[in-house]
């Protein structure tokens, strides 16, 4: 009887136990794939919103709204957690401000499909940045992947036959900054006690008020807020899906995975972004553009199979 009771207790303890590491890894992988879908559509949605408002004003609206929604999560934390959130979130928020400035300005000056494909170069850049920042030497094959990706970027942007466009160059800069941010997030959050939502709130504050300050420093400042419902619908989608959910999921996943795995699992983002831009926005790519985009996605998938 005692043995039976012991087996029953063991069964319920296992059933009600917290997820084991493998379960957490699977959950983080699924969350990151959903992030890839949401982020893939964000370029087309942002491009539509920029028709109504300038880049800096749009970023200020997007991220100050995000901060307002996340303030309760920040204030519910303990003093130690809040201190860690600010200590970690300030430098990461500065990096994210640079990313979103490059990305949003890039989207304004190139096709949404180009933006979605070029930003995926961070998949190949991340292992190289890991080597630079964290001392983890990449496999020799990574240089092949990097070469294929850069060839694809050149074909996509017309760089082989002309000059690299401003928008495409900004997206390349954003890809490098993304790779740096992934590694720095993993490094700075490893021993941080800040909850993911609180950290996201601090990052949103840095991006939102940083964009507003930059806008106010420019001659003429900002125009009045737009009244178009399309602008506010796009902003709400980006706030709830592409910022709150995506930032939270990435910050949480980085506590249960490696930077390369996080970057690699979001490598499907360019495919979703290009398809959304072509079928929803009616954009078109030339034959060399499709070939270049295919090389970028192929390098990302190849890297995924090799490193994941």
TrEMBL record:
Keywords: Cell membrane, Membrane, Transmembrane, Transmembrane helix
Membrane topology category: Multi-pass membrane protein
Highest taxon listed in the record's lineage: Bacteria
Gene3D superfamilies: 1.10.3730.20
Transmembrane segments: 50-74, 86-109, 115-134, 141-163, 196-218, 230-250, 287-305
Domain EamA stretches: 28-157, 166-304
InterPro entries (UniProt xref): Diverse_Substrate_Transporter, EamA_dom, EmrE-like
PANTHER family assigned: EAMA DOMAIN-CONTAINING PROTEIN (PTHR42920:SF5), OS03G0707200 PROTEIN-RELATED (PTHR42920)
Name of the protein in its database record: EamA domain-containing protein
